[in-house]
Write a structure and sequence with these properties.
Elements (H helix, E strand, L loop, with lengths): L15 E13 L4 E12 L4 E8 L2 E8 L2 E2 L2 E3 L8 E11 L4 E10 L6 E4 L11 E4 L20 E9 L3 E3 L2 E6 L13 E11 L6 E3 L3 E6 L2 E5 L4 H8 L3 H11 L9 E4 L8 E2 L4 E4 L12 H8 L7 E3 L6 H19 L1 H22 L17 H4 L3 H17 L1 H14 L3 E3 L1 H11 L4 H7 L4 H6 L12 H17 L17 H13 L6 H11 L7 H13 L6 H8 L5 H14 L1 H11 L5 H11 L3
Parallel strand pairs: 1-11, 17-18, 18-20, 21-22
Antiparallel strand pairs: 1-2, 2-8, 3-7, 4-5, 4-8, 6-7, 9-10, 10-15, 11-14, 12-15, 13-14, 16-17, 19-20
């Protein structure tokens, strides 16, 4: 693996590599800030090095020491969107393999993009404040000074002082009553310590603190949540987590992170889940009461191998994280529920893929598999494309060489790059090398047009998915389309969808939104009355039905849309609903955003502002 310059970091990561991170944080809920000290053990990668450069963003740096002695340092001018380089001069030049320990003391500021601080009123329990982090893609630098690139991995020791329980992306090692006098803290503060012995990149550094309790959901798994939701969350997850782990292990190799836990966050969390090692941070929208959305956990679990153990070397190769993870998630679904579910999930994914390409434009840079992010913010490129285009590329290779051969390659790939980072070109070389002595597989792989897959924008050829589970959904949608054209005697009734899974309802509603002519308003209301979608507690269903209504410009659904936008923070739902509401009633969209902007995580708030054209 040749060293590759990550265009989204200001650190000199080709000259130094962080081997260990020891981080000490003190939370202040009253000030919505962290006081921190971090010791970075850096290994020199070349001779004659005289300066360490770290990433920071909106940090108030107080002091810097090198090997225990005060050092000369400065914070450079801000470079959007990457922050400000922290330049630390070394007393004397160091040579390759030398170790340097850089200690930095700092405070976060109110411009920190990695943290969301919530008042008691913003939580379900209404009694205690809450804080959680989201560092992917380049937000760790606003939490602590670091080499904020996925090409660098380090082991971690955490000490986090808080008056409320703490979770972090490591293994708990204790709770301590002693709080050093040098650390400003609030009454009742305890020190929670964690260790992460497996090297991980900065974007997987995660912390959360609030009124959090836990319950077992498997022999090596806990669910963490607010006390009021804990029992409901336990019931939702307890039969599935260990099944998913064992299934993934049968595809790849043994789970390495010791425990696999899930933290159900407040509703402002901007993603479905975040694959922080040892503890997935998850949206409460997966707790639907009917287990219909727990496959999100299969996806985040799959990241324990794809992304966490084996990582993309830069965000330009994000598909290596998400494409592989989506592929493994669907293989888990196929093994647990039957192969038709692999295809059914892929059909749903293709719809999201197609919509993302249409949103960017078919020729847009961000619709490629390998993208150019020089000078760009990785958050702007975030979409379903790396997930689904990546999945479809891997599924193409799976079919090309044959499932039996491909299944032999999977553990080889994850063993080759275990605890490492790689590029798309490393993946290509490893694949071709693995099959080099297999003449039949080599001949098949010779047909792969790598440049087209890597660099051609837009959609590839759609695979011939098994539509067995989708056919009934398509047929019902066609009935509604005929009704929409006044060419049908079809009379909808609740029995139309009796026995359907939530996934089938999603496919039906997405088929409706695919039609060139939106549903008439009276039919939207008939669908609402007959199928009860407006009363659904499943965000996947309700968001799709509201999409149908907004495309029909049904004013009766504008208020409900504004209501759910004040209760959901997951960007998968929030962004498309805001875009549609903006087309229907810009004044209401802006009013809704203004009312709820402080509820949203900074990442979500920023992209919605761009979607709505708010400066």
């Amino acid at each position: 693996m040749a060293p590759t310059k990550d265009p989204n970091t200001l650190s000199n990561h080709l000259e130094f590599s962080t081997a260990h991170t020891a981080i000490s944080l003190t939370l202040s809920f009253s000030k919505s800030s962290l006081y921190g000290e971090v010791e970075l053990t850096l290994k020199a990668l070349a001779d004659g090095l005289k300066q360490v450069v770290l990433d920071t963003s909106f940090l108030d740096v107080r002091a810097v020491a090198v090997n225990g002695k005060g050092a000369k340092w400065n914070v450079g001018n801000r470079v959007e969107p990457y922050g400000s380089p922290l330049k630390v001069d070394l007393e004397k030049a160091v040579n390759s393999q030398d170790e340097v320990i850089v200690k930095v003391t700092w405070d976060t500021t109110d411009k920190c993009t990695a943290l969301q601080w919530m008042t008691p009123e913003q939580t379900s329990g209404k009694r205690h404040p809450y804080m959680f982090s989201q560092c992917q893609a380049i937000h760790a630098r606003s939490l602590y000074p670091c080499q904020d690139t996925p090409s660098i991995k380090s082991t971690f020791d955490f000490s986090i002082r808080s008056p409320l329980p703490v979770c972090a992306s490591g293994l708990p090692t204790g709770v301590h009553h002693f709080v050093p006098a040098t650390s400003p803290s609030e009454p009742g503060t305890l020190a929670y310590t964690f260790r992460q012995p497996i090297p991980m990149p900065s974007y997987l550094m995660a912390i959360a603190s609030g009124d959090i309790a836990n319950a077992a959901v498997g022999p090596r798994s806990l669910v963490y949540a607010g006390p009021e939701e804990l029992l409901r969350c336990k019931r939702e997850l307890e039969d599935d987590v260990e099944t998913f782990i064992k299934t993934a292990e049968s595809l790849i190799y043994a789970y390495e992170w010791t425990t696999y836990n899930v933290l159900i966050l407040p509703p402002s969390f901007p993603y479905g889940g975040m694959e922080n090692p040892c503890i997935t941070f998850a949206t409460p929208t997966i707790i639907s009461g009917d287990k219909s959305n727990v496959d999100v956990i299969a996806h985040e679990l799959a990241h324990s191998w794809s992304g966490n153990l084996v990582s993309n070397a830069s965000w330009e190769h994000f598909w290596l994280n998400e494409g592989w993870t989506t592929y493994i998630e669907r293989r888990i679904q196929g093994k647990v529920h039957g192969d038709k579910h692999f295809h059914f999930s892929a059909i749903i994914g293709w719809k999201a893929f197609k919509e993302s390409v249409e949103l960017f434009g078919a020729d847009h840079e961000f619709t490629k598999l390998v993208i150019d992010l020089r000078g760009k913010d990785p958050d702007d490129a975030f979409s379903s494309i790396p997930y689904e285009k990546g999945f479809n590329f891997l599924y193409y290779l799976d079919r090309l060489v044959g499932r039996e051969r491909w299944d032999a390659f999977i553990p080889h790939y994850f063993s080759t790059y275990r605890r490492k980072s790689l590029t798309s070109f490393d993946f290509k070389d490893t694949l071709l090398s693995f099959f080099s002595k297999d003449s039949e597989a080599s001949a098949a792989l010779a047909k792969v047009d790598w440049d087209t897959w890597f660099y051609k924008p837009g959609l590839p050829e759609k695979p011939d998915f098994d539509t067995t589970l989708a056919d009934a959904c398509y047929a019902l949608a066609e009935s509604w389309q005929a009704l929409n054209s006044s060419n049908s005697s079809f009379k909808p009734s609740p029995s139309d969808i009796s026995g359907w899974t939530s996934g089938q309802i999603v496919v039906f509603l997405e088929r409706i939104t695919d039609f060139s002519t939106p549903l008439r308003k009276d039919l939207v209301e008939l669908m609402r009355d007959e199928y009860g979608f407006l009363k659904s507690e499943n965000a996947e269903i309700l968001s799709r039905f509201l999409t149908v209504g907004l495309k029909a410009k049904d004013e009766k659904l504008y208020g409900k849309t504004a209501e759910v936008l004040g209760g959901w923070g997951r960007m998968k739902f929030v962004r498309p609903l805001y875009r549609l509401l903006n087309e229907c009633d810009r004044e209401l969209a802006l009013k809704t955003f203004a009312k709820n902007k402080d509820f949203y995580h900074p990442i979500c708030r920023g992209v919605v502002m761009k979607d709505l054209g708010i400066n």
